[in-house]
Amino acid sequence: MTSVVLFIFVSCILFSLCRKQLANPSCHGFYRFFAFEGILLLLVINYRFANLNSWNTNQAISFCLLITSLIIVILSVRQLRKKGGKQKRLNTPENFGFENTTQLVTQGIYKYIRHPMYSSLLILNWGIMFQQPTWFTVLIAALVSLMLIITAKVEETENINFFGENYLSYQRHSKMLIPFVL
Q: Residue 113 forms beta bridges with which residues?
């Protein structure tokens, strides 16, 4: 029962934060909301299995993925703040402030992947799933992965519209989510 209450409570907070994105299915934030909801669901289902006293293969895989996710998000946020700049964009009012960069960031981790924050969420998603893999948690993790891929694809279109040829060139020299793969 506590898990259900926690899920509903945090979902209400996410819904409140993402009202603008949910009103516009053509923006990347619309799909990202559902990815966050899926990650939240995995957390609520699997949080009780995160126990360092009962270490096993799944726990080890989960721990490695969670640490990797944390490292990636720290590197990407630092690089985005350092090189991206920010300004309000009239054509994307649903964006959060940190998303409205004025400069295309192609250094650091962004040299290899265009959406490292989504990569971090993708890895976080699977890291949480590995706490206690079941057919249901694997299904949720797969759906979250799909939502993150859709989110990145929609954001690619937004970035092409904003950065133009520079972004198209950047796409040719980097991967979307996973270095050297996707």
A: 175
Contact criterion met (CB below 8 Å) for 103 and 84 = yes
Largest CA distance in the chain: 52
CB half-sphere exposure, 138, CA atoms < 13 A: 4
Rounded Cα distance, 37 and 11, in Å:
7
Query: Which residues are paired to 175 by β-bridges?
Result: 113
> Residue with structure tokens 């998000």?
73
CA pair distance 174, 182, nearest whole angstrom: 9
pTM over 0.85? The answer is yes
Closest CA to 173 of 130, 111, 125: 111
pLDDT in tens, 101-140: 778 889 999 999 999 999 999 999 999 999 999 999 999 9
Residue 109 contacts residue 74 (beta carbons within 8 Å): no
Domains of the chain, each with CATH number or no CATH: 2-172 (1.20.120)
Side chain identity at residue 79, one-letter code: Q
Burial 66-76 (b: 16+ CB within 10 A, else e): bebbeebbebb
Strands (E), 99-144: none
CA distance 164 to 157: 10
